Amino acid sequence: MPKYAYECIDCGDQFEIYHSIKDKLVDCAQCDTSGSLNRIPALTISFSTIKKKDDHKVGDVVRSHIEQTKQEVKKEKQRLKSVTYES
């Protein structure tokens, strides 16, 4: 979302806020004046970005877990084959 800077005509309060490009604030929360906010043009073109932290492909974690589980099942089968049961 883009970050916009606003200034109130009445009280002079300035602030920055993230919101959709479709939205436009008009009411000042500081002095409760309706229609007193103006966007400050120099600061209106600022976008935030989110950087992906890991480079795992979709399903890598699942595949890894499945492979690990297969190994555990294989070990458990070998263990059960060595167990002798008495009747």
Q: Short summary of the structure?
A:
It contains one helix and three strands.
Question: Can you offer a commentary on this structure?
Answer:
26% of the residues lie in helices and 16% in strands. It is an alpha+beta fold. The chain has a domain at 3-43: Single Sheet (Rubrerythrin, domain 2), CATH 2.20.28. It has a 3-stranded antiparallel beta sheet with strand order 2-1-3, with no helix packed on it.
Mean pLDDT, rounded to whole units?
81
Which secondary-structure class do the elements indicate?
alpha+beta
Task: Write down the Rg.
Answer: 30 Å
Unreliable stretches = none
CATH topology (level 3) name of the domain at 3-43: Rubrerythrin, domain 2
Tertiary shape: rod-shaped
Strand content: 15-25%
Tell me the total number of β-strands.
3
CATH-derived architecture of the domain at 3-43: Single Sheet
What pattern of helices and strands is seen along the backbone?
Answer: EEEH
Supply the number of helical segments.
Answer: 1
The biggest beta sheet reads: 3 strands, antiparallel
Order of neighbouring strands in the sheet with most strands: 2-1-3
N-end to C-end Cα span: 71 Å
- The level 1 CATH classification of the domain at 3-43 is Mainly Beta
Helix percentage: 25-40%
